[in-house]
Amino acid sequence: MKKPKLIISHEDYDGLHSMIENEEFAPSHALLIDELERAKTVDKVKLPSNVVRMNSTVTFTMLSTQKTFALKLVYPKDTKETGTLSILTPVGSALIGLSIGQEIEWPLGNSKTTIVHIDSIEYSE
């Protein structure tokens, strides 16, 4: 499966790179770096409203199980709130920059993968 196009704001891009640089390197960082490096960056005001950004609540379906989740994509320090998903989880890294309707194949571990489908996105400053 070809990876979908990503679009991300300069602000999120810089914030995520800064977070990675200030933490001890972990395998989860490599997944996020790969996603950031293939993303197109734009000014925050030019980022379409149908794109997953940091602190947006994303409703997505894991097609292998047909389970739907609505989680807020956050920095690791903000995962104390319920209903949040760290950007450093495999699914968190997969979601950033995707648009409603896009799908991405993502590793689950144990050599298994799933397809994640973006259903809707809510964002408030």
From TrEMBL:
It comes from Cognaticolwellia beringensis. This is Transcription elongation factor GreA/GreB C-terminal domain-containing protein. It holds the Pfam family GreA_GreB. GO terms for biological process: DNA-templated transcription elongation; regulation of DNA-templated transcription elongation. GO terms for molecular function: DNA binding; RNA polymerase binding. Residues 48-123 form the Transcription elongation factor GreA/GreB C-terminal domain.
